[in-house]
Amino acid sequence: MKCKGCGIEIQTTAENEPGYIPVEVLERRLVEGKEVYCKRCFSLKHYGKLIDGFDFDHSLELLRRYLNLAPNVLYIIDIFDFEGTFRKEIVELLKDHQVFYLVNKVDLIPEEITPMEIKRWVKDRFKVQSTRIRLMSAKKRRGVASLLKFLKGKRSRKFLTIGVTNVGKSSVLNALADRDTLTISRFPGTTLKAIEFRNREHGLTFIDTPGIITKDRVTDLLDAVCQSRVLPEKKLMVHTIKVKKKPRTVFLGGFVRIDAETGELPGPIFHVITSENVTVHETNPETANIKWSLWFGSLLQPPCTQQSVDEYGMRKKKLKLVTGQEVAIKGLGWINVARGPLEITISYPANTEPVVRKGLVGPLKFKYKN
Ligand SMILES: Nc1nc2c(ncn2[C@@H]2O[C@H](COP(=O)(O)OP(=O)(O)OP(=O)(O)O)[C@@H](O)[C@H]2O)c(=O)[nH]1
Ligand SMILES: [Mg+2]
Fold first, then answer.
1. Does the CB atom of residue 193 touch ligand 1 within 6 A?
2. Which of the residues 194, 248, 280, 318 could staple to 239 if both were Cys, CB 3.0 to 4.6 A apart?
3. Ligand 1 pocket, residue 185 CB under 6 Å
4. For the segment 119-162, what is each residue's pLDDT rounded down to a tens digit?
């Protein structure tokens, strides 16, 4: 028997191992005809607490095996972390499948950016027919009804949901099935094994899968609890930085430092767009030099605890950007050039690489004072 929340095999003997449920609870649930959840899912569902951190290796190799389960794939991507969640190595595995790209969490995007603008930007990023791309918010149930209708029209009615951790795979399936059986949580690695279920009302079969663990996002440097803390829940925060007569430094949490040069007057303007739980701190380069290591994990979060910045092998890169360009920092957010040209030196941890991209946010989209 499998846990209905995370897919792990249910067991009643080893309390500290995955799938545990006390035998009396299991018997009671079976007698009452109720869904059976492991202790871990019970704790996540009812208290939002992670009682353990089982170390599962949810690799691409595992995904390759899951791909045999269905001809249709719903590849879920998180719009907040497009560069970290829309991944070439995953796309390459999907050549023999019919793939639908579901870009989730659009509710996080600030209202100044219209759904049409998001749609245009997203479509530009995929090299596929636009009917295969859907924008949605599992949380706000946006795009769910039309997606259901679309999926019902497909000849093969079995859909495998894939993607990296925390993009909302289980949330999307719960929304599509209009139930809350699958466990969803802010912690990465919630779903432990594949779970298949049938939605009788619509005649569709869905398979949820564990999220692929990545290594190149800034958030991959954090433990599960800290990752859950920085995950955005509300609309993304937009901080506007104006560089006039003197260079400015801005930190995105402790891990990313941006040193912006002065330009020709009236000077460059850029936006930093990130989770409400990531500190954005603007200062001058001199103070930044003195305080960075002191602030790392205290004033500047993440990381969630004070530690040594030197452990992360920080790298530096100089970038010259024009109006409308963006630099995405996987897992953490992005900066958008509202008025260029903008010359920056970006410092970032060795596990990641900033990505320069065409702007999701159009120039001067957010109001600012000159
Ligand atoms: N803002 C927002 N948050 C969402 C949305 N969908 C999911 N989330 C949140 O994202 C987090 C992860 O959701 P899950 O459904 O557990 O993600 P998952 O991809 O199944 O994660 P794993 O099983 O760990 O791979 C939870 O905190 C959800 O509430 C959405 O549309 N908008
Ligand atoms: Mg899941």
1. no
2. 280
3. yes
4. 999 999 998 889 999 999 999 999 999 999 999 999 899 999 99
Say how many Å lie between the CA of residue 294 and the centre of ligand 2. 36
- Which segment of 26-30, 45-49, 53-57, 322-326 scores lowest on mean pLDDT? 53-57
Where in the chain are the domains?
Answer: 1-52, 55-214, 230-358
By residue count, the chain amounts to 370
Arithmetic mean of pLDDT, 164-190: 96
Distances (CA, A) of 334 to 82, 114, 186, 250, 341: 10, 18, 21, 12, 17
Q: If you search the block for the tokens 């997203």, which residue do you land on?
A: 122
Helices 144-152 + 169-177 axis angle, to 10 = 80
DSSP reduced 3-state for 99? strand
What mean pLDDT comes out for the span 318-330?
97
- β-partners of residue 78 are 104
Binding site membership of 330 for ligand 1 (Cβ less than 6 Å): no
CB atoms within 5 A of ion ligand 2 belong to 169-170, 190-191
Tell me the C-alpha to C-alpha distance, in Å, between residue 265 and each of 241, 285, 344. 14, 20, 16
**Is there a contact between 121 and 127 (Cβ–Cβ < 8 Å)?**
no
Regarding the beta carbon of 351 and ligand 1, being less than 6 Å apart is answered: no
Ligand 1 contacts CB of residue 248 (under 6 A): no
Structure tokens at 123: 């479509």
Please state, in angstroms and rounded to a whole number, the distance separating the CA atoms of residues 9 and 3. Answer: 6
Q: Which of the listed residues 8, 183, 184 should we mutate to test ligand 1's pocket, taking the one with most ligand atoms within 8 A of CB? A: 184
Please write the tens of the pLDDT for every residue from 18-27: 999 999 999 9
Q: In whole angstroms, give the CA distance from residue 94 to residue 97.
A: 5
Q: Which amino acid is at 368?
A: Y
Q: What dotted CATH number matches 55-214?
A: 3.40.50.300
Using alpha carbons, list the distances in angstroms from residue 55 to 52, 207, 299. Answer: 9, 22, 30
Q: Is the CB of 190 under 6 A from ligand 1?
A: yes
Atom in ligand 1 nearest the alpha carbon of residue 171: 15
